[in-house]
């Protein structure tokens, strides 16, 4: 090993790159299958309207230069193709500069999507994928051993992800300090998974152990990433186990999976490294220049992380090169859900034939058991969770959603599990009501077969017909 590279990590780099390519593939597939209803030309928050009011320098994107649904689809599916090629190892068959350019392609494409994605792409794992994806450009391929400085920067991202999340919890909801947050979290999290009901019903002392273990993993273990081996590998392995526990307990898109990808880069796998020549001078200059840039950009995220007014999931530059992360600084004690219903009756009444729309991931029918979707990201379902917290979260898109349902819009209905109306017979009215949801007990589950029990709270949106919706918009 020379001063610039660490040949012992060549297999770690390979595993990291292939796993990151898989996450890219899921992200582009999510974009390709959902964009028309969300941000397309007839979407709920159309890209053309967004780029009219937001300049390129604030949101650099290919779609600032040109937008059409066809062009977006080409970019999204091209991202899928490039990600699949990287997953298959095409970058290893190219010269060093060619492999770097190939890794640059999905970063540019996904940056273009995120920067016009608006509220649908405001989640921390979007910026995290971009930050990690940018570093992957400079990790090299089989022509050179992994650069030490890039390996360090990858661990620096992992440190900020975990330590930042730990700090936001300790500074936020007191239940994290009292070790009681998991008494509620598995029930109130954005999108429960098939095992979440069982996690919720674990003994409360075990919930205390879970929270304490989480604090240890996020506030102590990250510092061990920068210690010599095998301690760094043990620290990364502990983070991986913790993330897999979270994967089992809920649907958090690819947040847990990309954190696992980051941790894999710190694991030194036992393998004999191949013999490769030293890194070319141009490559060393580029890598060191990028490292200096990223370390300089780390000032704002670090300042935020140590601040008492720490904020979660914030990008400090339009390219999302260095960001701040964190999740669940506060935990809801009560779960509310917005239930959307339609009727074909000409005059809507309480005793009308109201039929419920079924979403793919968010709770609806109390007897419908949650399914596993992560790492795939159901964007509408996630935003419906925020809408239940406060109507303000839905101000920019909920009216448009109702309008599309009244039209039986095909692209919007694809985001749902089931529409209660035939394609050629749209509803006359759509309404939304707020319900309180709670997990059933063991005895209630055996008696009713339902995993949820729900209670009506209040009206969320009164019965609305298409003409009224169009007039408001």
Description:
This protein has 473 residues and is of the alpha+beta class. It is 51% helix and 9% strand. It has helices at residues 10-38, 47-53, 62-65, 69-88, 96-114, 124-136, 148-171, 174-177, 185-188, 196-200, 204-219, 221-224, 231-249, 255-264, 281-297, 299-306, 379-389, 398-406, 410-413, 442-448, 466-472, and strands at 314-315, 323-324, 335-343, 355-356, 358-359, 416-418, 429-439, 452-464. Strands 4-3-7-8 form a 4-stranded antiparallel β-sheet. It has a two-stranded antiparallel ribbon with strand order 1-2. The protein has a two-stranded antiparallel ribbon with strand order 5-6. Helix 4 (69-88) packs antiparallel against helix 5 (96-114), helix 6 (124-136) runs antiparallel to helix 7 and helix 7 runs parallel beside helix 16 (299-306). The protein is globular, with a radius of gyration of 24 Å. The termini are far apart. Mean pLDDT is 95; it is low at 469-473.
């Amino acid at each position: 090993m020379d001063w610039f590279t660490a040949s012992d990590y060549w297999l770690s780099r390979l595993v990291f790159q292939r796993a990151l390519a898989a996450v890219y593939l899921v992200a582009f597939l999510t974009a390709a299958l959902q964009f028309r209803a969300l941000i397309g030309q007839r979407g709920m928050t159309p890209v053309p309207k967004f780029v009219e009011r937001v300049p390129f320098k604030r949101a650099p994107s290919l779609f600032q230069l040109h937008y059409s649904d066809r062009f977006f689809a080409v970019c999204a599916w091209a991202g899928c193709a490039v990600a699949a090629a990287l997953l298959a190892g095409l970058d290893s068959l190219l010269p060093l500069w060619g492999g770097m350019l190939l890794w640059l392609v999905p970063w540019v494409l996904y940056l273009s999507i995120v920067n016009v994605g608006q509220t649908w792409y405001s989640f921390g794992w979007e910026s995290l994928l971009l930050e990690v994806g940018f570093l992957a450009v400079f990790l090299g391929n089989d022509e050179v051993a992994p650069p030490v400085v890039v390996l360090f920067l990858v661990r620096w991202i992992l440190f900020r992800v975990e330590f930042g999340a730990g700090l936001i919890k300790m500074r936020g909801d007191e239940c994290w300090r009292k070790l009681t947050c998991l008494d509620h979290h598995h029930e109130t999290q954005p999108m429960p998974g098939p095992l979440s009901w069982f996690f919720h019903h674990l003994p409360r002392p075990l919930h205390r152990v879970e929270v304490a273990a989480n604090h240890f993993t996020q506030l102590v273990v990250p510092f061990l990433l920068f210690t010599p081996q095998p301690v760094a590998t043990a620290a990364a392995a502990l983070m991986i186990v913790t993330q897999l526990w979270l994967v089992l307990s809920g649907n958090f898109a690819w947040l847990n999976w990309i954190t696992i990808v980051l941790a894999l880069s710190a694991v030194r796998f036992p393998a004999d490294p191949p013999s490769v020549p030293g890194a070319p001078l141009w490559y060393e200059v580029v890598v060191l220049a990028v490292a200096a840039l990223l370390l300089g950009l780390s000032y704002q995220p670090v300042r935020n992380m140590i601040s008492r007014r720490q904020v979660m999931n914030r990008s400090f530059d339009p390219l999302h090169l260095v960001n701040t992360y964190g999740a669940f600084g506060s935990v809801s004690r009560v779960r509310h859900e917005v239930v959307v219903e339609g009727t074909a009756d000409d005059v809507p009444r309480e005793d009308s034939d109201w039929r419920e729309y079924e979403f793919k991931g968010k709770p609806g029918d109390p007897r419908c058991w949650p399914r596993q979707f992560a790492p795939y990201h159901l964007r509408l379902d996630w935003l419906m969770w925020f809408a239940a917290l406060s109507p303000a979260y839905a101000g920019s898109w909920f009216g448009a959603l109702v309008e599309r349902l009244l039209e039986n819009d095909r692209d919007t209905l694809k985001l749902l599990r089931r529409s209660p109306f035939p394609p050629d017979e749209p509803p006359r009215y759509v309404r939304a009501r707020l319900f309180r949801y709670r997990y059933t007990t063991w005895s209630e589950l055996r008696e009713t077969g339902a995993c949820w029990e729900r209670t009506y709270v209040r009206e969320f949106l009164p019965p609305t017909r298409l003409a009224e919706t169009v007039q408001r918009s």
